[in-house]
Amino acid sequence: MIILDQENRVFTLHTQNTTYQMKADRHSILLHTYYGPRLRGGDLSCLIQYADRGFSPNPNEAGDERDYSLDTLPQEYSSCGVGDFRLPSVEFEPEDGSRLADLRYEGCELRRGKYGLEGLPAFWGGDEWETLVIRMRDAAAKMLVELYYGVLEERDLITRAVRVVNQGTGTVRLRRCASLCLDFQRGDLDLITFDGCHTMERCPSRAPLRPGIQCVNSVRGASSHHHNPFVILCEHGANEDYGLCYGAMLVYSGNFQAAAERTWLENNRLVLGIDPCNFCFTLAPGEAFTAPEAALVCSPAGLGRMSRQFHRSLRENLIRDPFQGKRRPVLMNNWEATYFDFTADRLVEIAGGAAGLGIDLFVMDDGWFGSRDTDLSGLGDWEVNQEKLPGGLEALVPRIRALGMDFGLWLEPEMVSENSRLYREHPDWALGVPGRPRARGRSQLVLDFSRREVRDYIYKAIRNILDSAGITYIKWDMNRSLSDVWSAALPADRQGEVCHRYVLGVYDLLERLRRDYPRLLIESCSGGGGRFDAGMLYYTPQIWCSDNTDAVDRLRIQYGTSFCYPVSAVGAHVSVSPNEQNGRVTSLETRGTAAMSGTFGFEMDLGRCTPEERAVIRRQTAFFKEHYDLIQNGDYYRLSDPFADPYAAWEQAAPDGREALVSLVAGPAQAAAPFRRLRLRGLDPALRYTVNGQGDYPGDVLMEAGYPLPMFQGDYQSLQLYLSAVSED
Ligand code: DGJ
Q1: pTM of the model
Q2: Which fold does the domain 642-725 belong to in CATH?
Q3: Dist. CA 543 → ligand 1 center (Å)
């Protein structure tokens, strides 16, 4: 519920459990007065403290009000260079070369429903949403700034977006434009970020904020393996079940910066948006820029609830039809089974090995097109390699379908190999500065997706492929970071736009695919989880979580990923043991348990499995399908921290608490292991449950005292417990 008190210029956003408030004060500065557990409302500006602090300037119109300074006040969307020396949100450079922003409140508007953002991903929905638009203006620069707020009450979700319009007669260079600024008048917060690298993405890292700026970012052109555009600020003692936490996510797939600043007044400011490094957008008179959407969830009851609110919002209000809440296929991918070395017959043999095991979709990975026998060549030539696949997809796809599986395909549309026909014909279509040698990544260059003609060409090629055979799925890969960023299509003073225009170009192509092939399931990937963000999820309802398929590492990666993203977004497969990335040996059961907390699939030659292993796989796919809704759409609880605890354990519970699936993977074998009990969550304390069809366990006992864990023999043993409430008749 949004409450506008126009007289006192107080704007209050209530969600089910939280309250967010701003107030335009006597100088028309938009103050951020409160964000936290739900309050009754009223004007909360009484919470704001004023003090005269040395070297904190006062706005001109404040005269001798020495205790009124932008440097100390909590601002809703921070100014730049006019007396607030903390992180700015926006920066204008008009033709006089100044680089300031001084925003004053001008008006607001309340709308039913959710605003949309042209060309950008955004949460969507109907009348369960309300939208508030606040207009601010920098009078000297003649810049209008519109702040958008979407409120989804039941989910405790507040979305934000920013639109900047040049209303003057001269050109203005927009040097930064954050999507979100959040000021806290308290300093006792921890910052949690999700960091890592290729094959070890999104490992949580938590530390108390210390004085100064702590920041994670990406300038790689994609959101990156190294940091995720999702961060949490929380009370020092907050854990899964207790404490105040704020999750902030950017719905964007390119360069980003999440910066938290703790000041000498022990206040905190969080600014989230496109990384200002290498960003500069030129706005001619009348032109506008829209910053990507950001989304906030505040949970007064721990990290677990915050995650569940994000999961649900992403599943129900970001991922779009026809995949929203719908069943996705259990797939089999040939990558780790063959790498580049395959023929049509070999693929059919592998698919044959998967037939009858409950696998719905066969995916042909990299290596099927152009001269792609290694990763040194072929990208950009999206035509079937007839030597490997005689007769093309028209011949191969029916053979796979005859085995009872749909057919899917790998693509890497944004890239080009120098050894390709496309590059020989259009060398200027790759990003790069003429006269400067370009860096290669995985021996490839990046196509300039900011250019319409480049996208059109690639789109036509993709359409030819899709139209040639019944393809129901594509894996959209992206295997390097952007370097040598320069576009032949833009003038010198607009090169700061290339990275953002590139991302808009990716979104444009994905949207066209969605429009023309509405039933095509797209799984995105960037060497695993190098672009695992809500922006991609808007177009691709699942994302290959990591190139690391080792079950034990994966559980850590999936643990970190779960703080923001739902199980249904996480591409996860069973692969061979010893694992190809780290040589670890794990059982098929353990690998299945890990992959089942994702979209579930296989990445190995199942034809080589023993009859006993095939029986296990058949049971796994049947179990997964039987409990699909619980696994994918149930309420997710982290029951342990696999970075710190001797096991990884998690649970999906039905919202009514009548059933739950608990999964656990123990660590290395341990003699004389201590007795352990696992406390469950999300059950009904008043009900009794069977566990894997046996016994009679009271819900309160399972939640308060826990379930006694067995003594495991061997390394990395796993356990799946299906709990079902016993009907009371
Ligand atoms: C990186 C992906 O993450 C892998 O799964 C595989 O598709 C390779 N690219 C293919 O080149």
Answers
A1: 0.97
A2: Immunoglobulin-like (2.60.40)
A3: 12
